[in-house]
Amino acid sequence: MPRVAQAARLIPGWETSLGDYVTALAWTPRGARLLAASADGGISVLEPEQGQVSTIGEHPRGALCVSVRADGEMYASGGQDGKLALWDAAALREVARLPGDAAWVEHVAFQPRGTLIAAAAGKHLKLWSPDGALVRTLSDHASTIAAIGWDSNGRQLAAAAYGGLWIHGVAGTPSASNVTVATHTLTWQGSALSVAWHPDNKIIASGMQDGTVHFWRSGARESAQMSGYPTKVRQTSWSASGRFLATGGGEQITVWDFRGKGPEGTRPLELNWHVDLVAALAFHPQSHYLASGGRDGRLALWHPGETLASLDAHQLPAIAAVLAWSADGKRLAVGCESGLVRLYDLA
Amino acid sequence: MNSSKRVPVTVLTGFLGSGKTTLLNRILSENHGKRIAVIENEFGEVGVDNELVIGAEEEIFEMNNGCICCTVRGDLIRILGNLMKRRDKFDYIMVETTGMADPGPVAQTFFMDEEVQRQLELDAIVTLVDAKHIEGHLDKMDEAGKQIAFADVILLNKTDLVSEADLERIERRISAMNAAAKVFHTRDAALPLDKVLNVGAFDLNRALAVDDKFLEPEYPFEWGGVYRLERGRHRMTLATGPDPSILLALVPASSADAAGLSAQVEAAVRVFADDEKEIAPGGRPVVPGNTCYRLALDQGPFQFDVDIAESGAYALFTEHHRDEFDLRIQSAELFAAREFKPDHEHDEEIKSVGITDPGALDSTRLNAWISQLLRDQGNDIFRMKGVLNVAGEDRRVVFQGVHMLFDAAPERKWGTRPRYNRLIFIGRNLDRAALESGFRACLA
Questions:
Q1: Which of B5, B235, B252, B295 shows the greatest Cβ crowding within 10 Å of its Cβ?
Q2: Is B406 helix (H, G, I), strand (E, B) or coil?
């Protein structure tokens, strides 16, 4: 019987309630603030130390996504008003509201080690500079984009849509004249729902509508397919070490081990605790701790590789829709369908 | 932890101009106490200020299983997922499809995504039909027929723009395509909302109402008319038509009116099933009775004698429509006439095939037959519904299906009531004989 390396627990701490379903959460780099988006349209800044919550603006009809720039000085949000909003972090003031073009702005991400802001609306992926200038519009996606993700160098931007993944190689400094984008596709005839870059940027994984997970290693034309999930896979999360890929797609959490030759042909780790579909998964930023939320309203903490049993579990008053670890890994923010945002300390 | 009740969804289809917007506006503005969210195909047409009205752009995703009919609306999965984040704000969802939509992918979306299935239930497919333009649409575009074939409820709208006779003809054509749908005649899409909301068409727990009268059989003749003929010899004339011969039967009727004509239909079917007797122009006369005559039309002029021994009402049934040959009985008055949908025409057209039988079915053979049928013809079978009498099962087994998605469950007990099977298939390229023999092979 495997010995647990550390007994760990999630200790509930500060909490607050937003008006409606929490659709997105993002920590600032030093963990002083949490940026939150809510289905009622509100964009809020939560400051747990001060116990303060301020709604800094809104996207009428619904707020869908938020992102915090690596230096913590700018925030971005998108919503059902079809707009991308940019916020100055110091003044907590909106500095730009940019058009997504009719469709909802469903995904937004700041470029790591760069200054571009990627925002997806419908089939279009737009790259903006921080002063609100449109640098590029990438429109070759076959359907509405389901997810986006930059690799850790900010050199590749992946977009998931029907037909697979579009990998946009972005180079140059962000003035329209010298940003170049070279795109190639990783095809799969199905609806790709998520994007997850391996920490070394050499593997990209995607969860699919058809109950499979695909991953492509650098240079590979064809994906490796992991199938057998009871339902579509929307949650895909890599551990910081790059060893584990945790996936949802059912009531069970399926963790693939990429050590050595990789998971092809091996049995994954099967973490069972939830009695309804997995709703959210997040690997800890440094270790192999894994947090999970299910439609059963449960929150669980795992340490795959050490044990198949959960280390700690809590019943939440509502289903967890979003999980976000602070950058230092000391706190886990849980955003619920009811609007509840609760912080847990990892102890 | 989940809200236990699934949110009902109505799918609204219909060509541009059929009245979908009118119906949606009616539903959103009438005071029925229901909070309704709408996913419309063109944002801005309906209730712009309403937060719960969302625009969608149709995106059809094919499943990667090689099956061409296994498609879903990818955009709808996303949008419904998002809409359900605010589920405390509404009790009902209506999805409006584009004018030229194939209802298949929309309907299948509700059965092919686990999250959608757990939180939402498809209540009914409601199709609006523009009475003035539907016949033209049906003749030219596949989608018009599909929208009728998939429907649970059909609103035959804009009835004020067509005549009674046209309406009757249109409704007969629609019923022949989809014998299971409930058809309502409307003007301005006005009707009590309980006819389109909470219909429960996909709910296996609600009793299926497939009446006998919906399952209109097919006839070997296209036209029938009733005359009053005096004793003596009459002249029947025909012009050149599409065929070198025509079958006909002449039977005595009790009265020279529509009722008298209808009463002889079954008798005429029997006569047509009998051996034919060929006659040439100017040759042996047509005599009322049990003879099925084949009139040879290769050498004109086409004149035939009709000998009547006793004055009275007589019903004439012809293989082809009499207008195609300009068939007349000289100086005889036609009192009533009727058209019949022929069983030999246009197999590729959409039609309903109904099967009824009191026997008990062997469940193993039944499963094998249905599986094979859906594998081979799933793309052409749009809907199927029915009640089955399964050997060894004391409850009625009810089922319904969309393409290859098939769902069956036992319902209430038969008890002392007479047991029966009643199935209906709605689709194209349906071979009635093959379906019937396949079904009968499953009888225990």
A1: B295
A2: strand
Which residue does chain B place closest to A64, by CA atoms?
A: B82
Residue B433: CB partners within 8 Å, gap ≥ 6? none
Interface mutation vs chain A, best among B4, B77, B78, B85, most A CBs within 10 Å: B85
SS3 B347: coil
AA identity, residue B179: A
Distance from CA of A231 to the nearest CA of B (A): 6
Which two three-digit tokens encode residue B274?
Answer: 């009998």
Question: Which two structure tokens, joined as six digits, stand for B431?
Answer: 């071979």
- In this structure, the number of other CB atoms found within 10 A of the CB of residue A346 comes to 20
User: Confidence class of residue B313 from pLDDT cuts 50, 70 and 90?
Assistant: very high
Query: Which 3 state secondary structure label does DSSP give B414?
Result: coil
Per-residue pLDDT at B218 exceeds 70: no
**Any bridge partners for residue A163, and if so which?**
none
Q: Which tens digits make up the pLDDT trace of B129-155? A: 999 999 998 888 889 999 999 999 999
3-state secondary structure of B194: helix
CA atoms within 13 A on the CB side of B261: 18
How does DSSP assign B293-320, residue by residue? EEEE-SSSSEEEEEEESS-EEEEEEESS
Whether ipTM > 0.85 holds is yes
- B146's enclosing H/E stretch is helix B142-149
Residue B52 pLDDT class (50, 70, 90 cuts): confident
Nearest chain A residue (CA) to B85: A21
Integer-rounded Cα radius of gyration of chain A: 19
What Å distances lie between residue A124 and A107, A117, A120, CA to CA?
A: 11, 13, 6
Q: Do B61 and A64 touch (CB under 8 A)?
A: no
Residue from A20, A23, A81, A143 to probe the interface with B (highest B Cβ count within 10 Å): A143
Which residues lie below 8 Å from residue B74, measured CB to CB, with a gap of 6+? A143, A144, A162, A191, A209, B59, B60, B61
Q: How distant is the Cα of B345 from the closest Cα of chain A, in angstroms?
A: 39
**Residue pairs spanning A and B at CB distance below 8 A:** 65
How far, CA to CA in Å, does A93 sit from each of A24, A76, A98, A114, A173? 19, 11, 15, 22, 26
Query: What is the sign, positive or negative, of the torsion defined by CA atoms of A230, A232, A234, A239?
Result: positive
Q: Long-range contacts made by residues B66-71, C-beta under 8 angstroms, separation at least 24? A: B67/B378, B67/B379, B67/B404, B68/B379, B69/B104, B69/B378, B69/B379, B69/B403, B69/B404, B70/B108, B70/B112, B70/B403, B70/B404, B71/B104, B71/B105, B71/B108
Instruction: For residue B198, name the pLDDT band (cuts at 50, 70, 90).
Output: confident
Domains of chain B: 7-210 (3.40.50.300), 223-339 (no CATH), 350-440 (3.30.1220.10)
What is the residue-wise DSSP string for B63-104? -TTS-TT-EEEHHHHHHHHHHGGGGGG-SEEEEEPPTT--HH
Cis peptide before B8 (omega within 30 of 0): no
